[in-house]
Amino acid sequence: MNAIVLDGLATAKQIKAELALKVIELKQKGISPGLGTLLVGDDAGSHSYVAGKHRDCQEVGVHSVRIDLPATASVADVKAAIKDLNDAKDVTGYIIQLPLPFGFDTNEMLELIDPAKDADGLHPINLGKLVLAGSDPMTSPLPCTPAGIVELLERYSVELTGAEVAIIGRGITVGRPLGLLLNKKGVDATVTLLHSRSRDIQHAVKRADIVVAALGSPHFVKPEWIKAGAAVLDVGITRVDSGLVGDVVPAVDAVAGYLSPNPGGVGPMTRAMLVRNVIEAASNN
Fold first, then answer.
1. By CB neighbour count within 10 A (0-12 exposed, 13-18 middle, 19+ buried), where does 43 fall?
2. In what order do the strands lie in the sheet with 34-40?
3. 146: which residues sit within 8 A by CB, 6+ positions away?
4. pLDDT for 210-256, tens place per residue?
5. pLDDT, tens digit, for every residue of 76-135?
6. 121: which DSSP letter?
7. Model-level pTM greater than 0.85?
8. Which of 56, 105, 180, 198 is the most exposed place for a label (fewest CB within 10 A)?
9. Which domains does the chain have, with CATH numbers?
10. Could you tell me the CA-to-CA distances from 201 to 148, 166, 204, 207, 213 in Å, in that order?
């Protein structure tokens, strides 16, 4: 029996329909959400991704501002653009598209973002609030991919309370904040965070109810690693000669109970969560 597909495209479409109604309500109160994007350089993937974010905003009625700087832009140029976005009254949330070109200190640039306008949820203050979070709902922006993963699981009624979760990959955009979000009181999963130095990754994955592969290693997770009926989310992606390849061998479909494919799984959810952060920032502020 094939796994139930955790369809990120369909779920993101549903979320955007809900967000469009929220935008109408806010505008009736005189509140207009606005997204800003800052893109430095000419990376084709980054340009495509940013364009998708602006299309999402157009679909839900959110104003958007796009700032594109050449790869030759100086640190001073980028800092000036960040200041402009911090000061912009029509921007309630914005992102610095990563990766930045060689020579930029990414953390230094992210720390310059107004935390209240941090649409990616990656500012140190907002990550710190996630570390300190109790059982109350979060009012600060959450990292988009982790939030999208939890939202996708919840909308498909995948049980999180008490579930054993194996996260493969400890990156700042997915692995580490996802572990915090799943451990949060009210979600209450038990998380094992695995990485390149972990011993016996296969054994840790085999006992997990939920597996999140976010390391960027093509077809790293094998079907024989997966417990029958587990939920598997393929998050990492790598460009190879034949195209884009996820971290999970497609044949996992025959073992897992749920499978979030790549592409079409978590990616659309990440973009939907970005728009939600922008709208919630407008509502909160």
1. middle
2. 63-69, 34-40, 93-96
3. 174, 177, 178, 180, 181
4. 999 999 999 999 999 999 999 999 999 888 888 889 999 999 999 99
5. 999 999 999 999 999 999 999 998 998 999 999 999 999 999 999 999 999 999 999 888
6. S
7. yes
8. 105
9. 30-117 (3.40.50.10860), 142-267 (3.40.50.720)
10. 24, 9, 5, 10, 12
3-state secondary structure of 285: coil
3-state secondary structure of 186: coil
**Which positions are catalytic?**
53, 97, 120
Q: Please answer whether residues 97 and 38 qualify as being in contact, where contact means their C-beta atoms are separated by less than 8 angstroms.
A: yes
> How many whole angstroms separate alpha carbon 48 and alpha carbon 27?
29
The verdict on whether omega for the bond into residue 70 sits within 30 degrees of 0, i.e. cis, is no
For tokens 């194996």, the residue is: 166
Residue of 207, 204, 260 lying closest to 237 (CA atoms): 260
Rounded Cα–Cα distance for residues 261 and 32 (Å): 34
179-204 confidence digits (pLDDT tens): 999 999 999 999 999 998 999 999 99
Beta carbons of 6 and 258 less than 8 angstroms apart: yes
